[in-house]
Design a protein that fits this description.
single chain; about 375 residues; 12 helices; extended
Amino acid sequence: MPRWLPRAVLLVLALVACFQLGSWAFHQLIGLLVNILIAFFLALAIEPAVARMAARGMRRGLATFLVFLGVFVAAVGFVVLLGSVLAAQIIDLVEGFPGYLDSLIGSINDTFHTDLSRLDIQDSLLHSDWLQKYVQNSASGVLDVSATVLGGLFKLLTIGLFSFYFAADGPRLRRALCSVLPPRKQAEVLRAWEIAVTKTGGYLYSRGLMALISGIAHYIVLAVLGVPYAPALAVWVGLVSQFIPTIGTYLAGALPMLLAFTVNPWYALYVLGFVVVYQQFENYVLQPKLTSKTVDIHPAVAFGSVIAGTALLGAVGALIAIPAVATMQAFLGAYVKRYALTGDADASTSRPRPRRRVRLPGRR
């Protein structure tokens, strides 16, 4: 046996053990890593506001706290407005349910010549086996829902704490990172950091401005049609349509259409028509002007990045995909060498020139 063989076997076993241990630790900590990634992008998004307040003499910790307080107040206000709409609709539905049931039973009796009664149907439902099983399953499901809610609150608290520390100690974090790198790499890291802050903050602020414009426009239409809870619905449409990629527009327009249908079925069609028209105006007029200087990426690239982010990280990946791709594109654009187009390439990308008429001899 060669002398190096036992040492090589031990080395291979140690490498396999380290790989297995690292893989196990990564799968155990993937939830924490995703939360840290979300917190990092949130810190990048609020960095311009914090830096502007710190430049005026305010401490970064206090500036970060004020920004987070404003975000928290806005989120609570949105939840309260939306909760008021849903609570009022649920109360109206519960109060009007006996009347809906009586009209349905009456139409069934008239159509099929039956003699059904609401009280008999209620008694049969209350004494049915499937209802008792459903109640038992719901009782056990309440515990699962409570655990999910507590887990979500703990995750939000974790993201909030990490994003607060990243934003408040941003300069210290950059100094600690650059202190272990050579001077040339330090310049590249700082440049990438500044690009990420600019792209992420610009994406957030442009989306916020478009959400404000969209909310005002939809509020005017809903108020003219007399749809109830027009302010809350306007806030819902503005935020959901801008901060949920790809399907946010359809989710945002569904709730106003439903409430408009309760007022007048034709009003739902009016709301649908306005949502479609405004979406085209936003895609082709408003969005290019607002995002041309902040997140300048091709729509196909944006759509593909959202799909890829959703496949990797779910809804979180869909939210951070566009600013991440914009940052990567802006950073790599400085290292890609570009050349002047040749005559053939320029002619193939330009518009075709009109043909010149050739006058034949003997013709005027």
